[in-house]
Design brief:
Distance between the termini: 42 Å
Number of strands: 10
CATH topology: Rossmann fold
Order of helices and strands: HEEEEHEHEEEHEHEHH
Largest sheet: 6 strands, mixed
Strand content: 15-25%
Oligomer: single chain
Number of helices: 7
Structural class: alpha/beta
CATH class: Alpha Beta
CATH architecture: 3-Layer(aba) Sandwich
Radius of gyration: 17 Å
Helix content: 40-55%
């Protein structure tokens, strides 16, 4: 399966189980205050055995193709812990996860699990928006002596801000599917109407100002 076919299939599955919802006429409000015609919660895929199996196998294939087999799989808390464990199990590799902040008691860990300095890791994310939380995890790993080969995610909105941040951090990344492919699949499947396409495309160009100006 080539990259395009894989991206279309993953988009189809996300829409099928309602991990992604598109509501241009009744937008969501993100925690940032942005109005958004899309809401993505990839944790829903974990409740569907055939879907999570397909995503797990697809991520393993993506990692092998884009980065090569690492020493370690790392999940970003909390959304990517479960899928990261599944990927690590499939690849027969150890797994750790990175907290958003160090634990406030006990050993006060930021990285949970056993790892060794010098190990090569691939980071798993469920979704990339601005890239901030993903790259914060990458920096934590690098500061702990782990070499990050790259980051693999299920979905990206494809914001220019995230692309710039990953470039500046010199962290290659690859995703199973993206916003453009999702819209293509949603339209072909009659999930959205033609008149909604321009609204959905306009949002991605400048989400902070969409319906707020």
């Amino acid at each position: 399966m080539n990259d395009k076919d894989r991206a279309l299939k993953i988009a189809e599955l996300l829409l099928q189980v309602k991990a992604v919802k598109l509501q241009p006429d009744s937008p969501f409000t993100w925690a940032s205050g942005w109005k958004s015609p899309i809401y993505c919660d990839n944790r829903i895929t974990l409740s569907h055995a055939s879907v999570r199996t397909h995503i797990r196998q697809s991520l393993v294939a993506l990692i092998n193709e884009k980065f090569g087999k690492p020493d370690l799989i790392v999940g970003v808390a909390t959304g990517a812990i479960a899928i990261g464990v599944l990927v690590a199990q499939e690849m027969g590799l150890p797994f750790v996860y990175v907290r958003s902040a160090a634990k406030g008691h006990g050993r006060k860990n930021l990285i949970e699990g056993h790892y060794e300095k010098g190990q090569q890791a691939v980071v798993i994310e469920d979704l990339i928006s601005t890239g901030g939380s993903s790259l914060k995890a990458v920096e934590s790993l690098r500061s702990s002596g782990i070499e990050v080969k790259g980051l693999a995610a299920i979905f990206t909105y494809g914001f220019s801000e995230s692309e710039m941040r990953f470039s500046e951090a010199e962290c290659p990344y690859s995703t199973l599917t993206d916003y453009t492919t999702l819209l293509e699949k949603a339209f072909d499947s009659n999930y959205i109407k033609k008149e909604h396409l321009h609204l959905l495309r306009d949002w991605r160009r400048d989400p902070s100002k969409w319906l707020n100006s």
